[in-house]
Every structure is written in C-alpha cells, then in structure tokens.
Design goal:
It is built from ten helices and three strands, in the order ααααααβααβαβα. It is mostly helical. The two termini are about 45 Å apart. This is Large subunit GTPase 1 homolog.
C-alpha cells in the first residue's frame, strides 16, 4: 500500500511567522500597519449577527458590555395595553414624518472606535471599545424613548461585527460600499464615508453599483455624475453581463 503523501506545513508556518512578530510602524500609516495584540482569537470570535432581541436578551447584553454583576430580586410584571394606532398616514403626516427623519439623520451614526496608539494595552483597548459601544447603544435607546416616538429599524448589536469594520477601515486604503442599482441610496451609508475620512483623509471611498444591467446607459451616466459631484467614484458591475461574455467565449 503506497505511503500517504506528507501534508505541506507551509501555510501554517507563514501564519505562525506573521502573528509571532509584532510590527509597529510609527509613521502616518501606523493604524493599518501595526499588529495590535488585542486578545481576540479570530478563530473563535462570536460572529453571530444580532439585529433583534427581546428585553431580557437586551438587558443581559448591556450588563455584559458594562461589566456589571446583578442579582434578580423578584419579578414584578405589569401589563400595559397597546396605545399605538394603525392606519394610513395622511399627506400632512407623511410630510411631518419625512421632516422628522431629516432631523434625526444626524443622530444616527455608526459607532466609532476609540483612539489608540502603540502604547495602548489590549485590556485598555477592550475596555474603551466596550464603553464606547455601550454609550452608542444608550444614545440610540434615548432616541427611541423620546417624545417623538421614533422607531429604529433593526441594527447590528454584536460588538464583534463593529470591531471587524473598525479594523477593515484602519487597514484599508480604499473602502468599497456595495449598493443595489435599483435603489443605490437605500443601501449607501454616508456616515461610513465620513468615518473613513476621520480615520485618514487619504483613504478613498468607492461606490460599487451592483446589478447594473437593470440600468440604461443614460441612468448609469446620471448616477456616475451624481456620485462624482459628492467626491465619490462609482463603479458599475453586473454578474449577468460577465456570465454572458463567458458563455460567448466558450461557444467560440
């Protein structure tokens, strides 16, 4: 029986070599070049998306973020009759709602990563990130509980997902947002573009318009001009067009 070929350990050796050395570049690009040992095991991260939770889960998650110990004293339940009204909005109510959305837009921001440098320890950074994230959650809760009766759409409540975003922004020279050609502004996040520039003004924001085959040439030109006026480069992509081109080449 022939011997089984030995498995190559080249990949494992490269990974071990990369993470066994600490690189600290104190130049302008330190944020995306420094290897900060922040204690995160990237193979065991809790990357389960959490966009909706009940009151108990919300309470437990907030307590964990704040590092709070608590004991349940007793359960006091109060039934509150629903006071919301269901119906079709009038034109005046729609106008008021649109105005309210415009006023609240500046309050709805993505969480920022606290400032850090090469002297920041992993424990300090973890604590700062948790405090900053908890404060962000509190601000959103205040908006929902305010007198205006604003209801927020589901948003990501897992801190690990935001940590992934922070690291990507810090280490990238170009940050690409993928939007749907049928409604590009629905999926575009202007605050992400602002955050990218806050981290480093030299970083570039790019809009990738997916499913561009739904648009005519005139519509693509109009969207390209629209984003160019706002200092953004727009790239149009269609997987359908690529498949058609590949099939035509195969037939030849």
């Amino acid at each position: 029986m022939p011997k089984q070929p030995k498995k190559s350990n080249l990949g494992r050796a490269l990974v071990k070599d990369k993470f066994s050395k600490k690189r600290h570049d104190r130049g302008e690009s330190m944020l995306h070049a420094a290897e900060l040992k922040d204690g995160a095991d990237w193979n065991r991260l809790n990357l389960r998306s959490v966009t909706e939770s009940n009151n108990l889960d919300e309470f437990l998650a907030t307590a964990e973020l704040a590092g709070t110990d608590f004991k349940a004293a007793r359960l006091n339940m109060t039934f509150i009759p629903p006071s919301s009204k269901i119906g079709v909005l009038s034109s005046e109510e729609k106008a008021q709602l649109a105005q309210k959305h415009e006023e609240m837009a500046s309050c709805l921001r993505i969480p920022r990563r606290p400032a850090w440098d090469a002297s920041t320890t992993p424990e300090e950074l973890d604590m700062l990130e948790r405090e900053s994230f908890l404060e962000w959650r509190r601000r959103l809760a205040e908006i929902e509980s305010g007198p205006d009766g604003v209801i927020l759409t589901p948003f990501e409540k897992n801190l690990e997902f935001w940590r992934q975003l922070w690291r990507v922004v810090e280490r990238s020279h170009v940050v690409v947002q993928i939007v749907d050609a049928r409604n590009p502004l629905l999926f575009r996040c202007k605050d992400l573009e602002r955050y990218v520039k806050e981290v480093d003004s030299k970083k570039q924001n790019v809009i990738l318009v997916n499913k561009a085959d739904f648009l005519t040439r005139k519509q693509r030109d109009a969207w390209a001009n629209y984003f160019a006026e706002q200092g953004l480069k727009a790239i149009f992509f269609s997987a359908t067009k690529d498949v058609e081109e590949d099939q035509s080449v195969f037939k030849l």
